[in-house]
Amino acid sequence: MVSDSQLISLVKMLSKRIIGDDTAEKVLDVLVSRGPMTDEEIAQVSGLHINQVRRILQKLAEEGFITFTVPQTGRVGAQQMWSIDMSALRHVLHRRIREVIEKLRERLRYESELGAYFTCEKCGGHYTMDQAMEFEFRCPLCGDYLIQESTESLVKAINSVIEKLKVAEQKVARSV
């Protein structure tokens, strides 16, 4: 079973990749510690600019990491209350793990069928057999000779990651 703190840590890591910096972590920390809040309250507590907070909230909501509600106050213009729904978050994480496993399986099929590829030691380019033959086994970028490499180690690495993700998926599934 995945604990709430482990789940939040994973969401912070993913959020950093989505947003591109640590600002989403500040927003998530505020929501975790204080509970549902308006965007203005989050900006005030986090020290971030309101427009920055709104952009982060929108992206996190698009990913399913946070949710919002509009309180039924009876007044026009009631502000949205942003929060983290741990149950929904577990479902999102479970779905994302399954998606990653499927993409890795596709890559595994491709690499298994490929068997070998060619690299340029000078500039790091990677090419299939067909591409290497087309370029007469010379790098099209720098002209250096291409070296044949096996996909065996890559296939093993992908299999290892898939197995680890399956374990993680089972842990998350038990907590959903």
Describe the structure.
This protein is mainly alpha-helical and 176 residues long. 62% of the residues lie in helices and 10% in strands. It folds into two domains: 4-84, Orthogonal Bundle (Arc Repressor Mutant, subunit A); 88-175, no CATH class. The chain is built from seven helices and five strands; from the N terminus they run ααααββαββαβα. Strands 4-3-5 form a three-stranded antiparallel β-sheet. It has a two-stranded antiparallel ribbon with strand order 1-2. Strand 3 (116-120) and strand 4 form a beta hairpin. Helix 1 packs antiparallel against helix 2 (23-34) and helix 3 crosses helix 4 (50-63). It is elongated. The model has no long low-confidence stretch (mean pLDDT 90).
Helix content: 55-70%
Count of DSSP H/I helices: 7
Helix/strand/pairing category: mainly alpha
Described by strand count, sense and barrel closure, the largest sheet is:
3 strands, antiparallel
Unreliable residue stretches: none
What spatial order of strands do you see in the largest sheet? 4-3-5
* Count of distinct structural domains: 2
SSE order, one letter for each helix or strand: HHHHEEHEEHEH
User: What would the average pLDDT be, to the nearest integer?
Assistant: 90
Short description, anyone?
This protein is mainly alpha-helical and 176 residues long.
Topology:
Elements: H1 4-19, H2 23-34, H3 39-46, H4 50-63, E1 67-69, E2 81-83, H5 86-114, E3 116-120, E4 126-127, H6 129-134, E5 146-150, H7 152-175
Antiparallel strand pairs: 1-2, 3-4, 3-5
Helix pairs in contact: 1-2, 2-3, 3-4, 5-7
